[in-house]
Design brief:
By secondary structure, this protein is an alpha+beta fold. The protein folds into 3 domains: 2-95, 3-Layer(aba) Sandwich (Rossmann fold); 125-188, ATP-grasp fold, A domain (Dna Ligase, domain 1, 2-Layer Sandwich), CATH 3.30.1490; 194-319, ATP-grasp fold, B domain (D-amino Acid Aminotransferase, Chain A, domain 1, 2-Layer Sandwich). It is built from 12 helices and 12 strands. It has helices spanning 10-14, 29-41, 52-60, 83-90, 100-107, 109-118, 166-180, 227-231, 233-236, 245-257, 293-301, 305-319, and strands at residues 2-6, 45-50, 67-70, 126-129, 144-148, 162-163, 184-188, 194-200, 207-216, 237-242, 263-270, 276-282. The strands form 3 sheets. It has a 5-stranded antiparallel β-sheet with strand order 10-9-8-11-12, sandwiched between helices. Strands 4-7-5-6 form a 4-stranded antiparallel β-sheet, with helices on both faces. Bound molecules: adenosine-5'-diphosphate and magnesium ion (MG). Magnesium ion is lined by residues 267, 280.
């Protein structure tokens, strides 16, 4: 079988003048090598395609693959994670993880919250601020939490994201709108414990593989898992595997409600009543074997990285009606 690998490599963009924050979600070569190693161990013929541009050129030149292992995060637009999948759909080439429209919806945290509520998955109360006048309509009790509606890696989240009054709320929303050129998502501040939940599989086959509590220590920003905390995770964060059935249940319900596929993570935080609330779903979670949250969780529960990648491959193959067994 011929398998293509699509990805956005950090170093390619840094050399073109993009900032470290621009490329924070992109991958380093070790991630590509680790995934490729598993694909090769199954005797697939692997081609490193690279980013959207490279894929477009190859498709137009007539190249095809039996399926594509896609981890390209995309550069521009709220639906950027769905761009490579959309292109592959157009050429009827199967790919890993969720379908195009799910990847696009999951990028918009406001839209995703609305979907979750429809399925009875608890979220923080929320309000989308597209224009500054929207701030005046917010009726959620303080303290609030403000974040860009469609970023990852906690971009736009720092010590000032928790908001106690309307004046600061206006300032913060303006900062998000001006800096990130996208709506601000204003939510009730969830003051409780935080978890990320690892999930593999699709639909009825989906299962929680582990629940990991995320705690701040030392000089960490205490209110949230901020951009700085993520960058300095070795000094500032402690990750602990816990048994929290209500958290696991909510995460699985969220995953299945949106019909996410393959493997990924759901982030959960408790409110002041100790009720778990959905924060976001990561249907294309980072797969760096060292520092990405899902592989960290796997390492802690003794779930081999190779097994995780094989789960993702097998999920795609099962949709293609191919019965090659996992190694
Ligand atoms: N409503 C909220 N209340 C409290 N903290 C929040 C809230 N929303 C997000 N956070 C904090 O910000 C972090 C990043 O938010 P998240 O929605 O998971 O975005 P990202 O895609 O950047 O990971 C979370 O891990 C959490 O610590
Ligand atoms: Mg998150």
């Amino acid at each position: 079988m011929r398998v293509g690998l699509t990805y956005d490599l950090r170093e390619n963009y840094l050399s073109k003048g993009y900032s470290a924050e621009n490329v924070a979600e992109f991958d380093c070569i070790e991630t590509i090598e680790a995934i490729e190693k598993v694909l090769l161990s199954r005797n697939f013929e692997v081609e490193r395609i690279g980013c959207l541009d490279k894929l477009m050129h190859k498709l137009i030149a007539g190249e095809r693959w039996d399926f594509v292992f896609n981890i390209a995060e995309g550069l521009y637009g709220i639906g950027r994670e769905a761009q490579v999948p959309a292109l592959l759909d157009a050429y009827r080439i199967p790919f890993t993880f969720s379908s195009t429209e799910i990847l696009a919806v999951a990028m918009d945290k406001g839209l995703t919250n609305a979907v979750m509520r429809t399925y009875g998955v608890r979220t923080a109360d929320f309000h989308v601020v597209r224009k500054m006048k929207d701030v005046e309509r917010i009726k959620i009790n303080y303290p609030l939490f403000v974040k860009p509606i469609a970023e990852g890696t906690s971009k736009g989240i720092d010590r000032n994201s928790k908001i106690d009054c309307i004046e600061v709320l206006r300032e913060r929303c303006k900062y998000i709108l001006d800096t990130f050129h996208q709506p601000a998502l204003v939510e009730e501040f969830l003051s409780g414990r935080e978890f990320t939940v690892g999930i593999t599989g699709t639909g009825d086959e989906a299962k929680v593989i582990g629940v990991m509590e995320i705690s701040m220590i030392g000089d960490a920003d205490k209110q949230a898992y901020t951009y700085e905390n993520k960058k300095q995770y070795e000094d500032r964060m402690v990750y602990t595997i816990v048994t929290e059935p209500s958290v696991a249940r909510l995460a699985l319900k969220a995953w299945q409600s949106l019909h996410c596929m393959g493997a990924g993570r759901v982030d959960i935080r408790m409110n002041h009543n100790n009720e778990p609330c959905f924060l976001e779903v990561n249907p294309m979670a980072g797969l760096n074997p060292e520092y990405s949250d899902l592989p960290i969780l796997c390492r802690k529960i003794g779930y081999p990285y190779e097994k995780l990648i094989n789960d993702i491959i097998n999920d795609t193959l099962s949709r293609m009606n191919v019965t090659q067994q996992a190694n």
